[in-house]
């Protein structure tokens, strides 16, 4: 695995593509157990990210991800802004002066991002939040020896799908408690798109 | 007199405007800055707005932040971390009552620590 500035740009663009495509789906998910603005918020935020990073030149991946983080924080709104912003900020900080980014530094960075999300949201695993995708993904990346895009996508998908069976303990969905069971966590679905986009971007082309 | 400043953070611009009106009935001097709604004036909170409000409310004696539901606190925490102002604290008290008590105390020249203690005792 080698994550360069160009690949990083492609990653962010692919995330945006997926989020735009799934905007209404994300909103439907959030209407079921939250305040119904997740799709709109994420679509606005990642559109701004794409606009921002397209207009600038970056010396390394860390700089690129930092700009993405700052844009998400101020443009997404809701709890997702600070949470996804923190995730990308931690990635950026952890990848400082690492260019191109190799597999061990990337898996460490995802660990830092997962930790950042937990602290920012004061959430642990099993509370039906994006932590339920980021923590298992950080563990998976740390245990795997090399970057396997297909496996990464599958892991992210099953982590995301597992949030369906959890009773919400955090955020607006917590008011519903057990009535949130049977619904996917919207933040986890968005997190899945982030990892799926990564797998797609770094897929070896034959 | 230099007073501790108050920042009101809510998902709704109308909420913070209303609280400010209530406080201004009893105090005209304490710096009160508002961070209500998103940057497009919709329901939500915004880090940049909170950072700007901290700057507005800081007259050198510190700033206390009051917040409402959900993401408001998370955004307040990020704003505190990103703000270059020292002496900025998030108050763990109900938005309306807490801000009111803090403004009254700030108005009689209390320090940030003293106000935080009063809030801690009352809420």
TrEMBL record, chain A:
<dbReference type="GO" id="GO:0019563">
    <property type="term" value="P:glycerol catabolic process"/>
</dbReference>
<protein>
    <recommendedName>
        <fullName>phosphoenolpyruvate--glycerone phosphotransferase</fullName>
        <ecNumber>2.7.1.121</ecNumber>
    </recommendedName>
</protein>
<dbReference type="GO" id="GO:0004371">
    <property type="term" value="F:glycerone kinase activity"/>
</dbReference>
<feature type="domain" description="DhaL">
    <location>
        <begin position="6"/>
        <end position="200"/>
    </location>
</feature>
<keyword id="KW-0418">Kinase</keyword>
<dbReference type="InterPro" id="IPR036117">
    <property type="entry name" value="DhaL_dom_sf"/>
</dbReference>
<comment type="pathway">
    <text>Polyol metabolism; glycerol degradation.</text>
</comment>
<dbReference type="InterPro" id="IPR050861">
    <property type="entry name" value="Dihydroxyacetone_Kinase"/>
</dbReference>
<comment type="subunit">
    <text>Homodimer. The dihydroxyacetone kinase complex is composed of a homodimer of DhaM, a homodimer of DhaK and the subunit DhaL.</text>
</comment>
<dbReference type="GO" id="GO:0047324">
    <property type="term" value="F:phosphoenolpyruvate-glycerone phosphotransferase activity"/>
</dbReference>
<dbReference type="Pfam" id="PF02734">
    <property type="entry name" value="Dak2"/>
</dbReference>
<dbReference type="InterPro" id="IPR004007">
    <property type="entry name" value="DhaL_dom"/>
</dbReference>
<dbReference type="InterPro" id="IPR012737">
    <property type="entry name" value="DhaK_L_YcgS"/>
</dbReference>
<dbReference type="GO" id="GO:0005829">
    <property type="term" value="C:cytosol"/>
</dbReference>
<keyword id="KW-0808">Transferase</keyword>
<comment type="function">
    <text>ADP-binding subunit of the dihydroxyacetone kinase, which is responsible for the phosphoenolpyruvate (PEP)-dependent phosphorylation of dihydroxyacetone. DhaL-ADP is converted to DhaL-ATP via a phosphoryl group transfer from DhaM and transmits it to dihydroxyacetone binds to DhaK.</text>
</comment>
<keyword id="KW-0319">Glycerol metabolism</keyword>
UniProtKB/TrEMBL annotation, chain B:
<dbReference type="InterPro" id="IPR004701">
    <property type="entry name" value="PTS_EIIA_man-typ"/>
</dbReference>
<comment type="subunit">
    <text>Homodimer. The dihydroxyacetone kinase complex is composed of a homodimer of DhaM, a homodimer of DhaK and the subunit DhaL.</text>
</comment>
<comment type="function">
    <text>Component of the dihydroxyacetone kinase complex, which is responsible for the phosphoenolpyruvate (PEP)-dependent phosphorylation of dihydroxyacetone. DhaM serves as the phosphoryl donor. Is phosphorylated by phosphoenolpyruvate in an EI- and HPr-dependent reaction, and a phosphorelay system on histidine residues finally leads to phosphoryl transfer to DhaL and dihydroxyacetone.</text>
</comment>
<dbReference type="Pfam" id="PF03610">
    <property type="entry name" value="EIIA-man"/>
</dbReference>
<protein>
    <recommendedName>
        <fullName>phosphoenolpyruvate--glycerone phosphotransferase</fullName>
        <ecNumber>2.7.1.121</ecNumber>
    </recommendedName>
</protein>
<keyword id="KW-0418">Kinase</keyword>
<feature type="domain" description="PTS EIIA type-4">
    <location>
        <begin position="3"/>
        <end position="123"/>
    </location>
</feature>
<dbReference type="GO" id="GO:0019563">
    <property type="term" value="P:glycerol catabolic process"/>
</dbReference>
<dbReference type="GO" id="GO:0009401">
    <property type="term" value="P:phosphoenolpyruvate-dependent sugar phosphotransferase system"/>
</dbReference>
<dbReference type="GO" id="GO:0047324">
    <property type="term" value="F:phosphoenolpyruvate-glycerone phosphotransferase activity"/>
</dbReference>
<dbReference type="GO" id="GO:0016020">
    <property type="term" value="C:membrane"/>
</dbReference>
<keyword id="KW-0808">Transferase</keyword>
<dbReference type="InterPro" id="IPR036662">
    <property type="entry name" value="PTS_EIIA_man-typ_sf"/>
</dbReference>
<dbReference type="InterPro" id="IPR012844">
    <property type="entry name" value="DhaM_N"/>
</dbReference>
<dbReference type="InterPro" id="IPR039643">
    <property type="entry name" value="DhaM"/>
</dbReference>
């Amino acid at each position: 695995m080698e994550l360069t500035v160009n690949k990083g740009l492609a990653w962010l663009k692919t995330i945006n593509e997926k989020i735009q495509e799934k905007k209404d789906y994300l909103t439907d998910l959030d209407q079921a157990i939250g305040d119904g603005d997740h799709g709109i918020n994420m679509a606005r935020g990642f559109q701004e990210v794409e606009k921002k990073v397209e207009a600038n030149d970056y010396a390394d991946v860390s700089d690129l991800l930092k700009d993405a983080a700052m844009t998400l924080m101020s443009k997404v709104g809701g709890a997702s802004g600070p949470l996804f912003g923190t995730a990308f900020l931690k990635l950026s900080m952890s990848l400082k002066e690492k260019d191109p980014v190799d597999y061990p530094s990337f898996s460490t960075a995802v660990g830092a991002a997962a930790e950042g999300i937990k602290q920012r949201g004061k959430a642990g695993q099993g509370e039906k939040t994006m932590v339920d995708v980021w923590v298992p993904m950080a563990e998976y990346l740390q245990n795997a020896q090399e970057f396997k895009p297909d496996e990464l996508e599958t892991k992210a998908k099953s982590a995301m799908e597992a949030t369906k069976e959890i009773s919400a303990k955090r955020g607006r969905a917590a008011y519903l408690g057990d009535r949130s069971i049977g619904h996917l966590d919207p933040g986890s679905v968005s997190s899945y798109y982030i990892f799926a986009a990564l797998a797609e971007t770094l897929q070896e082309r034959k | 007199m230099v007073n501790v400043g108050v920042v009101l953070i809510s998902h709704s611009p109308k909420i913070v405007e209303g609280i400010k009106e209530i406080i201004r009935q009893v105090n005209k001097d304490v710096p009160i800055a508002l961070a209500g709604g998103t940057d497009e004036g919709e329901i939500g909170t915004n880090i940049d707005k909170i950072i700007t409000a901290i700057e507005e409310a800081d007259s050198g004696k510190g700033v206390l932040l009051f917040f409402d539901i959900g993401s408001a606190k998370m955004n307040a925490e990020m704003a505190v971390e990103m703000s270059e102002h020292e002496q900025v604290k998030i108050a763990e008290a109900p938005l309306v009552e807490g801000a009111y008590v803090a403004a009254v105390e700030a108005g009689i020249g209390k320090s940030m620590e003293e106000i935080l203690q009063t809030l801690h005792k009352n809420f």
